[in-house]
Amino acid sequence: MTRIAIVEGDGIGHEVIPVAHQALELLHPEYDYFPVDVGYGRWEQTGCPCADADIAALKTADAVLFGAVTTPPMRDYQSVVLRIRKALDLYANLRPVKSDGFDILIVRENTEGMYSGIEEIGPDRATTLRVVSRTGTERIVRAAIRCAGQRRGKLTIGHKANVLKSDVFFRDICIAEAQNAGVEYNDKYIDALGLDILQHPGAYDVVVTTNIFGDIISDVSSYLVGGLGLVPSANIGDRYALFEPVHGSAPDIAGKNIANPIAALRSAAMLLAHIGDQEGAERIESAIGTVISSGILTRDIGGSAGTWEFGEAVLKALGNCPVGR
């Protein structure tokens, strides 16, 4: 039986993930769905945001639907997201940004770089070690090359090799792998790339870059489609997979029924595609499109519908589509 872990997390995760969860259950009532409670709220209650038993539970799932977690700026607080990514070795973060006229997939290295977790804080200086390894770089660019082979076959390497020696290392390995694979490629400085994606999004297919650069450039690119509330992501490893909206926990709007559930729904669609149900993924996307075309929109994209009103409309549209299995 297919097992899906449901992690609402913190903040608006408690509002958007139930909508996406219901969409999955509507399409696949036969799946085994089980909750896993991690995040800042869990830490406030127990003193532990993510226990070893939680990691073990996630490893029993065929896929994880993940909401958002709050990471407070505290010295002794371990990021739940970083811990899960490392524990499940989810080294490839795939962030699609597409609309009429462009279809970009940002492939972000997900386990090292500035988020390696190797840090020191002293009275006069704080130091974060940026780790760019040959193994980490080879496997992320190979993942990007595989993605490019399934799409338009064009790869862009984003880096800051004019300043950072570790990015010279990253760029050169990426170029060598692209040449060995015979894939069309170019490379750009990450700051120039950020601007050019906004100006000429149709020129890009697959973009591969390091951890923090991928985090930033995918957030910037979300402007092209209406903001973070619409952009999903996949965290993929050789064994495990986790799917989450790109947005954070947004504590300032949590509990107000105004969060946009589209990114969570699209993350659920990516989950289905990953485990082999491409038709189900397309049905979720079609239902979202039907609701938007009908004029039902959340506040962030110019409407007045709440999280649940929009979600219910999507579920109704999804239920009206014939089940093709």
TrEMBL record:
A molecular-function term among this protein's GO annotations: NAD binding
Keyword Lipid metabolism: no
Keywords: Oxidoreductase
Major enzyme class: oxidoreductase
Enzyme Commission code: 1.1.1.85
GO biological process: isocitrate metabolic process; tricarboxylic acid cycle
InterPro entries assigned to the protein according to its UniProt record, in alphabetical order: IsoCit/isopropylmalate_DH_CS (IPR019818), IsoPropMal-DH-like_dom (IPR024084)
Residue ranges of every copy of the Isopropylmalate dehydrogenase-like domain listed in the record: 3-314
Pfam families assigned: Iso_dh
SUPFAM superfamilies from the UniProt entry: Isocitrate/Isopropylmalate dehydrogenase-like (SSF53659)
Family assignment from sequence similarity: Belongs to the isocitrate and isopropylmalate dehydrogenases family.
Name of the protein this chain belongs to: 3-isopropylmalate dehydrogenase
